[in-house]
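Input record, target 12 of the design panel.
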């Protein structure tokens, strides 16, 4: 398994700028009907910016999570997904109140661009820090980005059990018949 796309430094810089502009527009109360897109001559036609890739935007205030929203599967070009996910992470994460102008200068942003999901061949193949996971069991699902178990200090078994908890099912449910486990890799960078 390896990532089927790459992001140049210029593409990462564009996505970082895109996320910041989206949040600043929301803080200013501006409604942006058309998502700003790259200039036609700025990036090649095969750039990942034009692909429909999943992405998450994570906001941290100090060491504390302040918002994280994303799409596992892309539904629009990556540059638009990052715009929408940045706004959602800042203003629509149901776990947090909307980001304030006073908090904004202290927020750190991470962008995770996801490769395609595929069935995980088995728990023993999971590498903590490399593989993001999606668990589906009895109509419930949970997802973790690849960096989450590293940040939490989890080994593979703790990663899987915490994924079960996130899905709202008992720890160990990942072992049960009927449980579907998917994995993916991601390009993660500071915005």
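The sequence produced for target 12 reads:
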């Amino acid at each position: 398994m390896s990532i089927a796309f790459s992001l140049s430094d210029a593409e990462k810089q564009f996505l970082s700028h895109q996320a910041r502009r989206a949040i600043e527009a929301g803080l200013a109360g501006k409604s942006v009907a058309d998502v700003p897109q790259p200039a036609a001559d700025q990036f090649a036609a095969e750039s990942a910016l034009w692909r429909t890739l999943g992405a998450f935007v994570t906001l941290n205030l100090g060491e504390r999570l302040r918002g994280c929203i994303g799409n596992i599967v892309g539904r629009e070009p990556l540059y638009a997904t990052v715009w929408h996910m940045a706004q959602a992470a800042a203003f629509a994460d149901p776990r947090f109140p909307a980001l304030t102008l006073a908090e904004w200068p202290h927020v750190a942003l991470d962008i995770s661009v996801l490769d395609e999901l595929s069935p995980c061949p088995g728990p023993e193949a999971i590498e903590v820090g490399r593989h993001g996971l999606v668990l589906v069991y009895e109509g419930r699902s949970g997802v973790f980005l690849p960096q989450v178990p590293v940040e939490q200090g989890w080994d593979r078994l703790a990663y899987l059990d915490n994924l079960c908890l996130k899905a709202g099912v008992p720890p160990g449910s990942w072992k049960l018949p009927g449980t579907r486990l998917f994995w993916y890799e991601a390009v993660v960078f500071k915005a």
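The chain has a mean pLDDT of 95.
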